[in-house]
Design a protein that fits this description.
398 residues, alpha+beta, five-stranded mixed β-sheet, 15 helices
Length: 398
């Protein structure tokens, strides 16, 4: 990501306490949405409960009068709207982040402070105190966008100011009233601005931390993949993809120890392609490399998952067959030989076939390394070549 572009997206507006970049702000809203929904549900339910609780003092003060029914109706409608919003948040959580529903409900709720003085003139002081508390609570406790909270606060201040003016307050009283009302509004704004700005800065740090972790995870994955590739290259013949000398000698040692420990049979084989020099001389070394890869693929087809086929060098291959007697290995090698004999590689419309001579030896418990086995197999391979090639020969038992 471009550093300047990232820094631009992290700019937070002082007045709205939101990211100036819409995409960044949306990402923040999406991240905090579950918490916003949870807190808003708690807030509106508590709000609705307080509205309904005050019905009892109204009844005690006004009895079954017109004022009681008007004020109670407003309370019930407002509380119902709040509870409906809490219910809808479960299926429409975006209502919490938009801020519009709670703003409308809060603004309509201030109608109580315009009507109350007509029916309860003696409660003006109490109502004024409640408004002060609501102004501060709107900013600090209601999870809403700062600009909407400003609108709610402006409505509250205007409602009380209008109510005061209607009651015939003097200019001095109006001024004092507005000054007192603006104090919790400004205090609430400052607190909310600080809370929202701090939350977004924390989101920036969290995002940067997650991006750093992702880059680290990516680098770790790439490092592991590179390590695995280097290990594969270190153990694999680059042309045929078969086990190289280092690899198959390591595997032979492991299988030899295992078979000796469990008393199982282990057979080793040598494979040499017949007249391979002619292919290189007649068709070139590039085609010779294609033949080697083709042969490597064919010879793996009859093998089991546990069998090991490696490249010994040039046109020679080595075969390691765990848990396999010499007779069983002979059958496997014969299938491999027949597979080679019956398949070929096309070149300019000509089918080029290649055969191979196989030599097998039983690995003995007293064999100390693979060289002792390959020596016996190589002698048998020589006998197979002398006998006419394209056959499977067995090393003579000692």
């Amino acid at each position: 990501m471009n550093t300047n572009a990232a820094n631009d997206s992290h700019i937070i507006s002082f007045w709205t306490a939101e990211f100036k970049d819409p995409a960044m702000e949306q990402a923040y809203q999406n991240r905090v949405l579950p918490d916003t929904v949870r807190f808003l549900k708690i807030c509106v339910r508590l709000w609705a409960a307080l509205l309904l609780v005050f019905i009892l003092p109204d009844w005690a003060a006004m009895g079954a009068s017109e004022g009681f029914y008007v004020i109670t109706s407003i309370r019930v409608i407002n509380a119902a709207a709040l509870l409906i919003l809490a219910w809808k948040l479960d299926t429409r959580p975006h209502l919490a982040s938009s801020g519009v529903p709670i703003t409308i409900i809060a603004i309509l709720g201030y109608s109580l402070f315009l009507i109350y003085p007509y029916y309860q003139p003696d409660t003006a002081t109490l109502g004024f105190a409640i408004v002060l508390l609501l102004l501060l609570s709107t900013y600090v406790f209601v999870p809403n966008r700062l600009m909407f909270n400003n609108l709610i606060a402006l409505t509250g201040v205007s409602s009380v100011a209008i109510s005061t003016w209607i009651r015939g307050a003097s200019a001095m009283d109006m001024t004092i009233t507005l000054m007192i009302l603006c104090w919790p509004a400004f205090l609430g704004y400052a607190a909310s601005q600080r809370i929202n700005t701090a939350a977004r800065r924390a989101f920036i740090l969290l995002t940067q931390s997650e991006q750093t972790n992702q880059r680290l995870e990516h680098e770790i994955t790439r490092s592991r993949e590179l390590e695995a590739e280097l290990q594969r290259q270190a153990l694999t013949d680059p042309l045929t993809g078969l086990a190289n000398r280092r690899h198959y000698e390591m595997l032979f040692k492991r299988e030899h120890e295992r078979c000796r420990r469990h008393g199982a049979s282990l057979t080793l084989g040598m494979i040499d392609l017949d007249h391979f020099k002619r292919i290189n001389d007649n068709y070139g070394h590039d085609f010779g490399d294609q033949v080697l890869k083709f042969v490597a693929e064919l010879m793996q087809q009859p093998l089991r998952q546990c069998d090991i086929l490696g490249r010994f060098g040039g046109e020679e291959f080595i075969l390691i067959l765990p848990d396999t007697t010499l007779e069983q290995a002979h059958a496997i090698a014969e299938r491999m030989r027949q597979t080679l004999e019956t398949n070929g590689l096309l070149r300019d419309g000509e089918l080029i076939k290649v055969t191979a001579t196989f030599a097998l030896t039983q690995v003995r418990a007293e064999d100390t390394d693979i060289q002792e086995c390959t020596k016996r197999a190589d002698e048998a391979l020589y006998e197979g070549k002398r006998a006419g090639r394209n056959r499977v020969t067995l090393a003579q038992a000692a």
